[in-house]
Structures are given as structure tokens and as C-alpha cells.
């Protein structure tokens, strides 16, 4: 197998290069934002730049990057664009800039939205240019740029400006481009369309000729573009050299076609046009497909296009077609062909009279139609309206090959999509792992197109949605697998031995040489399948390794995935491995196959099962694992061996590789997605269209749902009636009681319910009814019934004063429908989530809520807060492996809950025993839950009923307060409660206390009744299943756990009514979708009532390691972000309580009016200055250290020694002033820098008690969702902004600090970046050198913003800071010397720690 060529990496220009560039000089003269006096607009500048910079460099990305970065589009091109100055260079320059913005993944249309007037004219010019002759004014390369621009337009239909232009190209009138016979056929199929078509014709007649001509041009645009493409395609020779411009044009064109087919609004009318041009037939017969090297990507794209043109969907209605409907369509096509043959072509009688199954394969169709002449084939095609009618006297102009392929490809039997999917192996093999078009390397530049599905705003059907996600998820995990294989196998250093075998010169922790491999079972296939039900094999390895690594291998669990690898190295012993050269040829890798562990075998050859029992100790080093192989893959390999005489792959393996368990769940997730596609996915009706991206985006908002709930109990949400009134601004609050003393929470609120589906009623005059009525809230305070005399009987209460937007989020979450809450940093997302959960729990006690988060850490934070509210802990359950980190004494995992139930049962039975004794009842009532139940029924209830009959109001007799206490039958039992139990003040009060006591007793027996099941179920597993399915009301898990365990949960009969997702903007699209389907539908409907998503799409998206999937396929788009883009209504929390107001200003521009909570101004910690530092935030410029700025030892592993040393020096300075080290975190934007800073910390601070270690040294991405008082941030880059250009990363970086933020960066680079301007303009307004006050110890009494009374010192550069800190440290050592004679830190050590290594330290 040929190893792929390594792609070039695009080297970003350095600041000095930027400054030296001709472009930059022009920018400084004409459009740079920081230049005050700019020269007037000159069209010649645009012409020059285009000719000299862009065309001359053959559209070099580096030049275009520079132009785009200098804000050429925003400040010059579009600002000055008008029809008068429009020219070829002008159009092309704008297209290049827009394409570059899409490549960089930054918003592209903002500039056009601000000045939309000339966009229609500009767009028409683009259409005209796209159809121009290739050898005319526009070259093929330029037209490829235009195609890419058009593709971006078609993929941006959510932008009104773009949609208004594009719609004219893809609406029904485009059917003008069809042949008349085909048009007639289509209109006949759907009678409704004929009415529209006649209307269109009428309107056309009313137009003036010029406008009509313009409209016709637009309608025929795509048909003409296809014809133009076909002519370019036909000009590609079979074997002579071809210019790559032609190949790239063809690839980009097919990409555009795929994107048009994969969106319903564009596909609806276009699919018929595409079919009528027979584009696919032309492509499959073209020379380009048969060119091995140049046509590889084209062929892959073509297969994708073929898939989408035949997609199982009704183009008109948008409904998915079932298997039966697809079969019917196929049969209709064949029978209409048979009818035509029977009526008009006697030579086809045999074909016409055969049954369908006999003639619908490719072979039989070629056999029937092959012998016919070209003219006859043309006539058959024209009878089917596929080609224009052939006049009697003329011969056809079409090639026979084309005519035959047209008829065969249209009528051959297709394998259904689901069948294809089920026959696909889930593990990647060497063919996919190293195919650059499918799994590009880390150096993906974004220039070419790829054979990958894209995740945009809309999907055709749920099947399409799942399939795209399935493919991308599979490939993203393949990329990670490739990295692991390359790492492990090269560490093992496979060399060729003297005898031609393999010898391993190294070792790897994650891989071992295979000693023996045998297939031990191939089970029979299921009926109707041709692959075995399972294939098992035994793999033997020799674990002669360190104990902890041996433990890791022996700890492989059931379902862990491993890879079996065959290497046949050709390099002799001792050859060095070069990471820059292609991997495959160096190690001689031949095969890769996946497998799943069943278990390790014991001495007797039996699988050791996972379980609570201790594992047997095995002697010796040899271990054998039983593994499951992929049956589909096995069947393909064996077929290949038998039919083609290929070697048996399964006799060649010589390496087994394992992966880290956390990164190794891809197979389970893929199986889950595949299972979902094989079942009827039942998504609630109110969600279906929104998930696919169609219809009214606000249709699932509670105000438009058909079943809003009028009265809701807000329980402890409000702290007082005043709090309630301020929470509903603009509403008229009416309280049912007038006495202010009784207006205390909890409150029930009745909201005005709108009639109809969210539409206001109309008066007879058609006027809206007075909206006053819609603003009235009826509030009813109610008293929670007394729960008993013990202090712990009092309900726990919420203490947070929610803001009115938080209340709106809580209200929306309690109503049925979809609620989306956007929570900027520090706005109390978790508090809102917990309150929603608590309120649903109390309002709908019979419903069950599923909580899903992205990380275990978020789940733990939620759980800790849920514990503080009034929720019975027996109803909480936590699934997955993260419960170990919960910071509570209690264990909420399945087995923890089982133990809790068993322990609680014993406690309650003890209480029953005490009650029995206090009542003097003989016998053993507390033996089991069952006997306790009888005791309650016959002994407790009878006494209570007798008591009630004595003390209840008798007619005409005033009740006596003392009777309540006198007759009370449970005095002795409640003797251990605070006394006296009865106050004797009023009859009502004492009666409520008595009933509270009885509620306390009754609850004991209710719980025991629930716990009876744990007496009947004996095993821990059964008990835990019972808890999950019956007992738990609030079940929490991570999205990964949901994806892994879906099959098990559905099988158990797991049910839930509500889903709450935290960190929703960080969860992959597919991992957000799977939790909706963790239960079987009831009578064909989903029982899901509420879906609450809480997240922040302005912070970082899900982590996708491969740049191509992240950028090209948009895989990093979460479902939350997609919903926001579609326009689903959101509740935006708007008050933060985390950071100083000045720090909040660095990121609040990104949100809708984000303000501060009052305590941010009032609390002393926010109003006091940061000791020893003049400013609460500062951007500190760091120049090259010893001539070096950023360095890159490995791909994307960026480091910057100057910044690393500076950051650590500031950290040490703060600690020496007295700052607690754990209140400081050091963040950076790259992993390389993180490792470098950790190394320097280890060398400088070590375990020094005077300094300590920072709370965390990590990357910005990893620190999302966390915070600290002081953040020191290193931005690393000095050549190009890099991924900080993604504003979401900037928002996370700026919002982690509460009290102080100090940023180290190359200012000249970052201040020019358009996207970062709002933050960097504030940062650069302060001095760019560090200002310190060395004599001011921590904590200080100075107020923030006050001028200090002590001397301020300005630090110019890093060496100065390092020397300053060293001297400060030595001074500190000397002054404390005579106090700490014994515990003195040896001076030599301190010097070793602190002298800055002037030759530079390498991390």
C-alpha cells in the first residue's frame, strides 16, 4: 500500500514579515483601523493588489490571510463597493476574502449585513462570472473560487440577506430548465404543482421584457452551470497530463452539488433538474474517474453525490421514505420501462414479460439492452422522458455507452441504506486510517475539499442526521486511533531480522508483541444475513514488563477495544525512525483490525468474569485474552481470501495494541447510533422538525405548546413577596390574601393561559384584546403541611435571590416544551438548573427527570447543590464512573444507593420496633417490611382514626385544646422530640402539629413499602436495576455514559419524562441527541415532556482533535449552537456575580446586555485592590528572549520561553508578597507552553515552602467551567494569532479570573486582529509594561483604582523581572534568617532554584 505524501503545512507569517509586506504598507495607507489619516479610496489599489499579490502568487493562502487579517474586506472592499466601481478584480477580491473567513471559521457576512444595499447587484455579477467561458475573462482557477463562494452562500441560508438572493435560483420556476416532456411528467405526478406553474406563467407575462429576461437567467443558472461543468469534465484526457485547475474545479463543483442535494430547501426542486441533466452518468463515464491519482477524490465525492441523489426522501413533502415505499418506486420504474418495451419495441418482448426480480440486476439489464442500437436506446429513453424525442430521420448524437449506462443505472436494484450500514465494519482498517481524503493529517490547511459529510443547519431526515454523525464520529475516532498506532508501533521499533522475520528493538506501554493468535469460534449467521453472528479468537502475549504495566494489561475489562496489527519491516536492525517521513513504509505496516475484549483466560482456559469476587492469581508471564472480532470484517476478509486468493489476514498478526479507557468508547457509541438507525426513532412531535432544522424555530417554546400548565407551585424559588414582584417586571401581581403577614413563600402562581396555539384572541373588530389581562398573575401563598416534630423534618430551603431572567428560565423549564438557557460566565447556570429540577420534582412527583452533562465535574457540582435542596435523597441516582469524586459523604452510585436503601430499611424497622414498644403491642412487627405494613394497617391506623374521632370538631361544641394533647396516642414514641410537642396556644396549631406527627409516622411506613422490593430481590444487580427503573426520580449521567449504555437502559425498560442538559454547548451534536432516545416509545409516541438545555455557545465548543473534521465538516458545532443559529428562542441570563466589573467588561460585549450583580460592587474583596500590583488587569508585552519568540518542536506544540519565564516570575513575586498560591492559576493557549511552564515551576519553585505551587497550570480549553481569584495567562504566539482568533476561546480566557488577570503576549500581533478588537482595545488602553508596588504586602487596604501611597516600579522586560524576584527572595531569606535558624532553606539550594538560566531553559 503506497504511503500518502505528507501535506504541506501553511506557515503563518511572522509580525516582522507582516510589517515588511507590500500589502501591510498599503493597509497602513488606506484602511488599517489604527491609522487616523487615511488616503481616499482608489480603485487602482484593488486592481494592483489582485493582480500583483493574489493572481501572481496563484492565490497563495499566505497572501490572502494577510489581506483578510488586515481587515481589507471590512474597511476597504465592501465599504466602497458600488455598481459603478464593480470590476473583475473587485468581485474576485471580495470572494477571496469571504472564502478565507470561512476557511478560518470566523463570521463572514457581518460586514454585508451592515451595508446590504449593493449585495443583490454584486450577487448577480457573481452568477454571470460563474457562467463565463473558461478561456475568456475568468480563468478556471478564478471560477473555482467563485464556485466555493456560491457554496458558502447556499450553506448560509439562515442569513436573510443571502437567502433572499439564493432563493430565486432554487425555487419552483427553475424547472424551466427541464425538457418539456419531463416537465409535463413531473407536473402530472403532483397536480397541486400545475396550479402553481400556471400562476408563475401568468406572472411572467406581466413582467417587462428586461425583468423577465433577468428572471429567466437566474432560473436557468444551475442548469447552465451543470452544462458548463460537463464540458469542462469532457475536456479531461484519459492518460495525458491534465492541469490541476481542471481537477480542482470538478471537485469543487461536485461538492457544491452534494451540498445542494443535502439540504431540503435547495434539494426540493433542484433534485429533478440534476436528474434531468444525467450529471451522474456523465461523471461515472468520464476520464477523470478512471485516472488513478488525480481522480481519487473526485470518485469519492461522486459516490457521496450518488448517495444523496437517491436519498430515501420525498422531495416535495420532505417525509422519509420507508423500505416498502423505496421498493414501490423501484418497481414502478421497472414496470414503466417494461410497458414502454412491450408497446413499442418488439425486440424487448422477453424483457417486458419477465418478472421484476429477474431483470433488475445490472448484469441482466446490460444483457437485455446491450444488443440494441444507439437510436433504439435513445427512443426508449425518450419514451421515459429522460431524453428529448429523436426525429425519425436523424441519428442520435449520444454515445451508446452513455445511453446504456443511463438506462441501466436508473433501473438497477439498489441496496438499501440501512443494509449498507449493517454490513459495514465498525473498526477502521489500514485502508481508511491512512487515506488522506477521508482522514486528513493534522496539517489540514482548508484549501481543498474532502470526501466528508458536513454538519450544517439542516438535515434531510433523522436517518440522514444519524448517518452523517455516524460517519464523522467514526472518522474522528479513526484519526485518534491512527495517532495511537503510530506512537505505539514506532516505539516498538520493528526491524527486519537476519532471517527475514520481525524483531522488536524497543517497547511500548500500550502495545505488546503477539506470541500466538487463533480463531476459536465462527458462529452461524442469522437468517437472512451472510455474516457470522460472532467470531471469537484467543490472543496470547508475554507480559515480561514492570508490575504496574502488567496490572494495566491484566486490568483490560470486558468491551475494551484493542487493535491487532501486522508489520513486516524492510529496514535492517538499528535503523533510526524519522517522524517526518511516512510512517507505513518505515515500519512496514500491512494490516490493522479491531477487536473487543471478552476477558482474560484462567489456568483452565475459562474466561475470568468481571465481578466483585477477587481475580485469581495467575502464575508466569504468559497471558491469553479471548477477543470478539468484527463479524462483518471477518466475512469480507474471508471472501477476499477465497475469491481472490489473497492471504489470510488472521494468520499474520504480530502486535496487539490497547488504548486509554477514557478515549476508547468509540465502538459502543457507533453501535448505539447504528441501533438507533435500525429502530424507529421516535422523537416527540414537538421536537422532530426543530431537530432537523425546519419549520418555526419557536414552535417548541412553552408559549406555543398546546398544553401549557396554568398553575405552578414555585415552592422555595422566591424568598419573599417583594422578590416575587420584582421577578415579573411588567406584570400585575394579585395576591389571594391581603394580610401581609400571610404573604410568605412558598407561592403558587396562576399564569394567564392564551387561547389557541399561542395566538392571542381577537375582538369582533379584529383588534387584539387588551393585553392587561395577559399581564395578571394570581399568587397564592400556601403552607407546607407540618412534617413532624423533629428539627430534621423541616424542609431545606433555597437561599438564592434569583434575578428576573433566572426566574423566566425556571418558569420556562417547569412548563412543557424546549427551554434553552444561555448562561454567560458567572451567571448562576447551575443554581438555575438545580431549582428547575427541584420545582419539577415537587410539582410532578410522578415524573422522572434525567440529568445529562458533558463532564463528571459538572455532574458533581450539580449533585452537591441538589443535596442542599428539599429533595428526598432516596430518589437520587448517579450512573457512570464519576461518582468517586463527589465531595459528599454519600454514595449516589447504583450500589451506593442499594446500600443506602438496605441501611435505611434497618433504621426504619428499628423505628417501627420503638413505635410498637411505645404502643405496648406484642409480637415482632419489625421483622420485615411486610409485617411492618400489617402493623401500620391494624395497630397504628386504628389508633389514629379513633383519636381523630375524639378530637375533631363536634357540631355545636367548641373544641378543647387540651384534648388534642390528652388523647394523643403517640406521646411515648415522640418523647425524644423537642418538648413540649403541643404548645396549647390554639386548636388549629396543635391539630396541625398532631397531623404532622402522624405524617412523620406514615412516611416511615410509606418508605418501608417502597423498600419491600429489596427484600424480595436478593442480588445487588437486581436491586440496582429496580432502583433505576422504579425508585429513582432524578437520574444523572454524562452524555458519554448515555451513549455507551443506551442498549442496556432500553432493555431494562428505563423511563423518564424530562431531560435537563448542563454544559449543552460543549456536547457533540450526536451525544446530545442520544439521551432523547434512552427509552422505548409508548404506543408509538415518546413520553418526553420537557427538554431543558443550559449552556453557553459563546464559550468553547466540543473538542475535535482533527482540524479537517472541526473546520470542513463543522463537527464542533453542538446541537445547542445549531439551535441558536436556527433561531430557537433562548433565555439569556444577564447578571454575573463572579468577577470584578472591570474584568467583566473584557468579555461582556459578546453577550446581550450582561451586567453585574450588586455584590460585585459592594463586597470588600471586589472593591479592594490587588496588593503589590497597580492594576487589576494588565496586558504585558513580551519581546523575543535571546532572539526567539514562539517555537514549535512538534506540530501545534507551541512554546515561548520568554513568556513562560515571565509568567512564573510574576507568580513567584505574588507568592512572596503573601498571596496564597492556590488562589493563582496559570493558563495558556497551547499544550506545549503548559508543559514548559510546569517544567519551569518544578525548577524554580519545587517544593519551596515560601512559594508553593499554583492551583493549576493548564490550557484555557481545559479550564473551561472553572475559576480562580487570580489568573496569569500566556498567549504564546508571536507569528500568527492562531486559534485564539476563535472569539469563544478569548471569552473563556478572559472570564476565568475573579479579581486579577495578567496577560503575557506579543501586543503588536494581537491588537491588529479584528475579532479580538473589543477586548484588546481595553487591554491596550493601559500601559504594556508590568507596574508593581513591591513594598505593598498582601492583603492591602488600598481601594481598587486608588493611587498607591508607595512607590510604583515599572518592569520593562522578563530578565529584569526575574532578577528582581531573585533579589526580593534573597532579601526575604536574609531578613528571616535569625528567626528561622533551624528551618532555614539552604542558600545554595535557593540559588540553584532561582538564578535564571541565561542560556535559556528548554521544557
TrEMBL record:
One Pfam family this sequence matches: AAA_12
Domain RNA helicase aquarius insertion: 707-794
Domain RNA helicase aquarius N-terminal: 24-414
Superkingdom of source: Eukaryota
Gene3D superfamilies: P-loop containing nucleotide triphosphate hydrolases (3.40.50.300)
Similarity remark: Belongs to the CWF11 family.
Name of the protein described by the UniProt record: RNA helicase aquarius
Lineage: Eukaryota, Metazoa, Chordata, Craniata, Vertebrata
Gene: AQR
Amino acid at each position: 500500500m503506497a504511503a500518502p505524501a505528507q501535506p504541506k503545512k501553511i506557515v503563518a507569517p511572522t509580525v516582522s514579515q507582516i510589517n515588511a509586506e507590500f500589502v501591510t504598507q498599503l493597509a497602513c495607507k488606506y484602511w488599517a483601523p489604527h491609522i487616523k489619516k487615511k488616503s481616499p479610496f482608489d480603485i487602482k489599489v484593488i486592481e494592483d493588489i489582485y493582480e500583483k499579490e493574489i493572481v501572481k502568487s496563484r492565490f497563495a493562502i499566505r497572501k490572502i490571510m494577510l489581506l483578510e487579517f488586515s481587515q481589507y474586506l471590512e474597511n476597504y472592499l465592501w465599504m466602497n463597493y458600488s455598481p459603478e466601481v464593480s470590476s473583475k478584480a473587485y468581485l474576485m477580491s471580495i470572494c477571496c476574502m469571504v472564502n478565507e473567513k470561512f476557511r478560518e471559521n470566523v463570521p463572514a457576512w457581518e460586514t454585508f449585513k451592515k451595508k446590504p444595499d449593493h449585495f443583490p447587484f454584486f450577487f448577480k455579477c457573481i452568477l454571470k462570472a460563474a457562467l463565463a467561458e473558461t478561456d475568456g475573462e475568468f480563468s478556471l482557477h478564478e471560477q473555482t473560487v467563485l464556485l466555493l463562494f456560491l457554496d458558502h452562500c447556499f450553506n448560509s441560508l439562515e442569513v436573510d440577506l443571502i437567502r433572499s438572493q439564493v432563493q430565486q435560483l432554487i425555487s419552483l420556476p427553475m424547472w424551466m430548465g427541464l425538457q418539456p416532456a419531463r416537465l409535463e411528467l413531473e407536473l402530472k405526478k403532483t397536480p397541486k404543482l400545475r396550479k402553481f406553474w400556471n400562476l408563475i406563467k401568468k406572472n411572467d407575462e406581466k413582467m417587462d421584457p428586461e425583468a423577465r429576461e433577468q428572471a429567466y437567467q437566474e432560473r436557468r443558472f444551475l442548469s447552465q452551470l451543470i452544462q458548463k461543468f460537463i464540458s469542462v469534465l469532457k475536456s479531461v484526457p484519459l492518460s495525458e497530463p491534465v492541469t490541476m485547475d481542471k481537477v480542482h474545479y470538478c471537485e469543487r463543483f461536485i461538492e457544491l452539488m452534494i451540498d445542494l442535494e443535502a439540504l431540503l430547501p435547495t434539494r426540493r426542486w433542484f433534485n429533478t433538474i440534476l436528474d434531468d441533466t444525467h450529471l451522474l452518468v456523465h461523471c461515472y463515464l468520464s476520464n477523470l474517474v478512471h485516472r488513478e491519482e488525480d481522480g481519487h477524490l473526485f470518485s469519492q465525492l461522486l459516490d457521496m453525490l450518488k448517495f444523496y441523489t437517491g436519498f430515501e426522501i420525498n422531495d416535495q413533502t420532505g417525509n422519509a421514505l420507508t423500505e416498502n415505499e423505496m421498493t414501490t418506486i423501484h418497481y414502478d420504474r421497472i414496470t414503466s420501462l417494461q410497458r414502454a418495451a412491450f408497446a413499442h419495441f418488439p425486440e424487448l418482448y422477453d424483457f417486458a414479460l419477465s418478472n421484476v426480480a429477474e431483470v433488475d440486476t445490472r448484469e441482466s439489464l446490460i444483457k437485455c439492452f446491450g444488443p440494441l442500437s444507439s437510436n433504439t436506446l435513445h427512443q426508449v429513453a425518450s419514451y421515459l422522458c429522460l431524453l428529448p424525442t429523436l426525429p425519425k430521420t436523424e441519428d442520435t448524437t449520444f454515445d451508446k455507452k452513455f445511453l446504456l449506462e443511463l438506462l441501466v443505472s436508473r433501473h438497477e436494484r439498489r441496496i438499501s441504506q440501512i443494509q449498507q450500514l449493517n454490513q459495514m465494519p465498525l473498526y477502521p482498517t489500514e485502508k481508511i486510517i491512512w487515506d488522506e481524503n477521508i482522514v486528513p493529517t493534522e496539517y489540514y490547511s482548508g484549501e481543498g475539499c474532502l470526501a466528508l459529510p458536513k454538519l450544517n443547519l439542516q438535515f434531510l431526515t433523522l436517518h440522514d442526521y444519524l448517518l452523517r454523525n455516524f460517519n464523522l464520529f467514526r472518522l474522528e475516532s479513526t484519526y485518534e486511533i491512527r495517532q495511537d498506532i503510530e506512537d505505539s508501533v514506532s516505539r516498538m521499533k520493528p526491524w527486519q531480522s537476519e532471517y527475514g522475520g520481525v524483531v522488536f528493538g524497543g517497547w511500548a506501554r500500550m502495545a505488546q508483541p503477539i506470541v500466538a493468535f487463533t480463531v476459536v469460534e465462527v458462529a452461524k449467521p442469522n437468517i437472512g444475513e451472510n455474516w457470522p453472528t460472532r467470531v471469537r479468537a484467543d490472543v496470547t502475549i508475554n507480559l515480561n514488563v514492570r508490575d504496574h504495566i502488567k496490572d494495566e494489561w491484566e486490568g483490560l475489562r470486558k468491551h475494551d477495544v484493542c487493535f491487532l496489527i501486522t508489520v513486516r519491516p524492510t529496514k535492517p536492525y538499528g535503523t533510526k525512525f524519522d517522524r517526518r517521513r511516512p510512517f507505513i513504509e518505515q515500519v512496514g505496516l500491512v494490516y490493522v483490525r479491531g477487536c473487543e475484549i471478552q476477558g482474560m483466560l484462567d489456568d483452565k482456559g475459562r474466561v475470568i468474569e468481571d465481578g466483585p469476587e477477587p481475580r485469581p492469581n495467575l502464575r508466569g508471564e504468559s497471558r491469553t485474552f479471548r477477543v470478539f472480532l468484527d463479524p462483518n470484517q471477518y466475512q469480507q476478509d474471508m471472501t477476499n481470501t477465497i475469491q481472490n486468493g489473497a492471504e489470510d489476514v488472521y494468520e499474520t498478526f504480530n502486535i496487539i495494541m490497547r488504548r486509554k479507557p477514557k478515549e476508547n468508547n468509540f465502538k459502543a457509541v457507533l453501535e448505539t447510533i447504528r441501533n438507533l438507525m435500525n429502530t424507529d426513532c421516535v422523537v416527540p412531535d414537538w421536537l422532530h422538525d426543530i431537530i432537523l432544522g425546519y419549520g418555526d424555530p419557536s414552535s417548541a417554546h412553552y408559549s406555543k405548546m398546546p398544553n401549557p400548565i396554568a398553575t405552578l407551585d414555585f415552592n422555595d424559588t422566591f424568598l419573599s413577596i417583594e422578590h416575587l414582584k420584582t421577578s415579573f417586571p411588567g406584570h400585575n401581581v394579585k395576591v389571594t390574601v391581603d394580610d401581609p403577614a400571610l404573604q410568605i413563600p412558598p407561592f403558587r402562581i396562576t399564569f394567564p393561559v392564551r387561547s389557541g396555539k399561542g395566538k392571542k384572541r381577537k375582538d369582533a373588530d379584529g383588534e387584539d384584546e387588551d393585553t392587561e389581562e395577559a399581564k395578571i398573575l394570581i399568587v397564592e401563598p400556601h403552607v407546607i403541611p407540618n412534617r413532624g416534630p423533629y428539627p430534621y423534618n423541616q424542609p431545606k430551603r433555597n437561599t438564592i435571590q434569583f434575578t428576573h431572567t433566572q426566574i423566566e428560565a425556571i418558569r420556562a423549564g417547569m412548563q412543557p416544551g424546549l427551554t434553552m438557557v444561555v448562561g454567560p460566565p458567572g451567571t448562576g447556570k447551575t443554581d438555575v438548573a438545580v431549582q428547575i429540577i427541584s420545582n419539577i420534582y415537587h410539582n410532578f412527583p410522578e415524573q422522572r427527570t434525567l440529568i445529562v452533562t458533558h463532564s463528571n465535574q459538572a455532574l458533581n457540582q450539580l449533585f452537591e447543590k441538589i443535596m442542599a435542596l428539599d429533595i428526598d435523597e432516596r430518589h437520587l441516582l448517579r450512573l457512570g464512573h464519576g461518582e468517586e469524586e463527589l465531595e459528599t459523604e454519600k454514595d449516589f452510585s447504583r450500589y451506593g444507593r442499594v446500600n443506602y436503601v438496605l441501611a435505611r430499611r434497618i433504621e426504619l424497622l428499628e423505628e417501627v420496633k420503638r413505635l410498637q414498644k411505645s404502643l405496648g403491642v406484642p409480637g415482632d412487627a419489625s421483622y420485615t417490611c411486610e409485617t411492618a405494613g400489617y402493623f401500620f394497617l391494624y395497630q397504628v391506623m386504628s389508633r389514629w382514626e379513633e383519636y381523630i374521632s375524639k378530637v375533631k370538631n363536634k357540631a355545636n361544641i367548641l373544641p378543647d385544646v387540651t384534648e388534642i394533647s390528652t388523647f394523643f396516642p403517640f406521646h411515648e414514641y415522640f418523647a425524644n422530640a423537642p418538648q413540649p410537642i403541643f404548645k396549647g396556644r390554639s386548636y388549629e396549631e396543635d391539630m396541625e402539629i398532631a397531623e404532622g406527627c402522624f405524617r412523620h409516622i406514615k412516611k416511615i411506613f410509606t418508605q418501608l413499602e417502597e423498600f419491600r422490593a429489596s427484600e424480595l430481590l436478593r442480588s445487588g444487580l437486581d436491586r440496582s436495576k429496580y432502583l433505576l427503573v422504579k425508585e429513582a426520580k432524578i437520574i444523572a449521567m454524562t452524555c458519554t455514559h448515555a451513549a455507551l449504555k443506551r442498549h442496556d437502559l432500553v432493555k431494562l425498560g428505563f423511563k423518564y419524562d424530562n431531560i435537563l442538559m448542563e454544559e449543552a454547548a460543549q456536547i457533540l451534536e450526536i451525544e446530545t441527541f442520544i439521551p432523547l432516545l434512552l427509552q422505548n416509545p409508548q404506543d408509538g409516541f415518546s413520553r418526553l415532556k420537557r427538554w431543558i438545555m443550559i449552556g453557553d455557545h459563546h464559550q468553547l465548543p466540543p473538542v475535535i482533535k482533527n482540524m479537517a473534521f472541526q473546520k470542513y465538516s463543522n463537527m464542533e458545532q453542538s446541537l445547542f449552537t445549531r439551535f441558536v443559529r436556527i433561531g430557537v428562542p433562548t433565555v439569556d441570563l444577564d447578571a454575573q456575580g463572579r468577577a470584578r466589573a472591570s474584568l467583566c467588561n473584557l468579555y461582556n460585549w459578546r453577550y446581550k446586555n450582561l451586567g453585574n450583580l450588586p455584590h460585585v460592587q459592594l463586597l470588600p474583596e471586589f472593591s479592594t485592590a490587588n496588593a503589590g500590583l497597580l492594576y487589576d488587569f494588565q496586558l504585558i508585552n513580551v519581546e523575543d528572549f535571546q532572539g526567539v519568540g514562539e517555537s514549535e518542536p512538534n506540530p501545534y506544540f507551541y512554546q515561548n520561553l520568554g513568556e513562560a519565564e515571565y509568567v512564573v516570575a510574576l507568580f513567584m513575586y505574588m507568592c512572596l508578597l503573601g498571596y496564597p498560591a492556590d488562589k493563582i492559576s496559570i493558563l495558556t493557549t497551547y499544550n506545549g507552553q503548559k508543559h514548559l511552564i510546569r517544567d519551569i515551576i518544578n525548577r524554580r519553585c519545587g517544593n519551596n515552602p515560601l512559594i508553593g505551587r499554583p492551583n493549576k497550570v493548564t490550557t484555557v480549553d481545559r479550564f473551561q467551567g472553572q475559576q480562580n481569584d487570580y489568573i496569569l495567562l500566556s498567549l504564546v504566539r508571536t507569528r500568527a494569532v492562531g486559534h485564539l482568533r476563535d472569539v469563544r476561546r478569548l471569552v473563556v480566557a478572559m472570564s476565568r479570573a475573579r479579581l486579577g488577570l495578567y496577560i503575557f503576549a506579543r501586543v503588536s500581533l494581537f491588537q491588529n486582529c479584528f475579532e479580538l478588537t473589543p477586548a484588546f482595545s481595553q487591554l491596550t488602553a493601559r500601559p504594556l509594561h508590568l507596574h508593581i508596588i513591591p513594598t505593598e504586602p498582601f492583603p492591602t487596604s488600598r481601594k481598587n483604582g486608588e493611587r498607591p501611597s508607595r512607590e510604583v516600579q515599572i518592569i520593562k522586560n522578563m530578565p529584569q523581572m526575574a532578577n528582581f524576584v531573585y533579589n526580593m527572595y534573597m532579601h526575604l531569606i536574609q531578613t528571616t534568617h535569625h528567626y528561622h535558624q533551624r528551618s532555614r532553606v539552604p542558600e545554595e539550594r535557593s540559588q540553584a532554584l532561582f538564578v535564571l538560566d541565561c542560556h535559556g531553559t528548554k521544557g
